[in-house]
UniProtKB/TrEMBL annotation:
Catalytic activity: [protein]-L-glutamate 5-O-methyl ester + H2O = L-glutamyl-[protein] + methanol + H(+)
Species: Aquabacterium soli
Superkingdom field: Bacteria
PANTHER family in UniProt: PROTEIN-GLUTAMATE METHYLESTERASE/PROTEIN-GLUTAMINE GLUTAMINASE (PTHR42872), PROTEIN-GLUTAMATE METHYLESTERASE_PROTEIN-GLUTAMINE GLUTAMINASE (PTHR42872:SF6)
UniProt-recorded name of the protein: protein-glutamate methylesterase
Active site: S24, H51, D148
Gene3D superfamilies to which the protein is assigned, alphabetical: Methylesterase CheB, C-terminal domain (3.40.50.180)
Keyword Hydrolase: yes
Any Pfam family the entry gives: CheB_methylest
Annotated coiled-coil segments of the chain: none
Membrane-spanning intervals of the chain: none
Domain (CheB-type methylesterase) ranges: 19-202
GO biological process, alphabetically ordered: chemotaxis
Length: 202
């Protein structure tokens, strides 16, 4: 499925209170373009699911800590969300958002069954975040080789949140963006460079 690569003006950065990003194959390279674009003064929390080997520790927080202006952490169960922080789902656990006590959402980890052959799964994060942030959520689906993220992006759309799909022509593997585009009409279809420019303005 093809999609236009022109940058959309329909994304309203003023509405964004939380960002969820999902990626699979090629995701480390894609995230290396996007996450460093976030400026130190950004107050939006960012939650990332990247499909990982379930039997090995993740080094994502360490890898990106030296590249990003915002602090990077591996998500911990029942941890309150801190604004202006990038959270990575740990291997072999689904990452979810929960209302929890207090004013801020809390993180939750689950060892429930694989979703789309994955744990962590993008759909699980996106759907739980849509329940918490509603119209103030931005969901981004990047490169990958399966359809994880498509249903989650639809949930964000139905909650009146904003959605971006990486231009399949710009993706290392186009299957995941194409699956998302076959499921929902996003707010924007953008290249990595265009998404990075948007994030840098937050």
């Amino acid at each position: 499925m093809s999609a236009p690569a022109a940058e959309s003006t329909s994304i309203d950065p003023r509405r964004i209170s939380g960002i969820v990003i999902g990626a699979s194959a090629g995701g480390v390279d894609a995230l290396s373009v996007l996450l460093p674009a976030l400026q130190r003064q950004a107050t939006v929390p960012v939650f990332v699911v990247l499909h990982l080997p379930r039997d090995r520790p993740s080094l994502l927080a360490d890898i990106f800590a030296s590249k990003c202006a915002l602090p990077c952490r591996e998500a911990q169960d029942k941890e309150p969300v801190v604004p202006g922080t990038i959270y990575f789902a740990p291997p072999d656990y689904h990452l979810l958002l929960d209302r929890g006590p207090g004013a801020w959402p809390h993180l939750a980890l689950s060892a429930d069954a694989l979703v789309n052959f994955s744990r962590p799964a993008i759909d699980v994060l996106f759907e739980s975040a849509a329940d918490i942030y509603g119209e103030c959520l931005l969901g981004i689906v990047l490169t990958g080789g399966n359809h994880d993220g498509a249903a989650g992006l639809k949930a964000i759309h139905e909650a009146q949140g904003q959605t971006i799909v990486q231009d399949p022509a710009d993706a290392q593997l186009s299957f995941m963006p194409e699956a998302a585009l076959a499921t929902v009409t996003p707010s924007a279809v953008m290249s990595l460079a265009q998404i990075a420019r948007l994030l840098s303005g937050l």
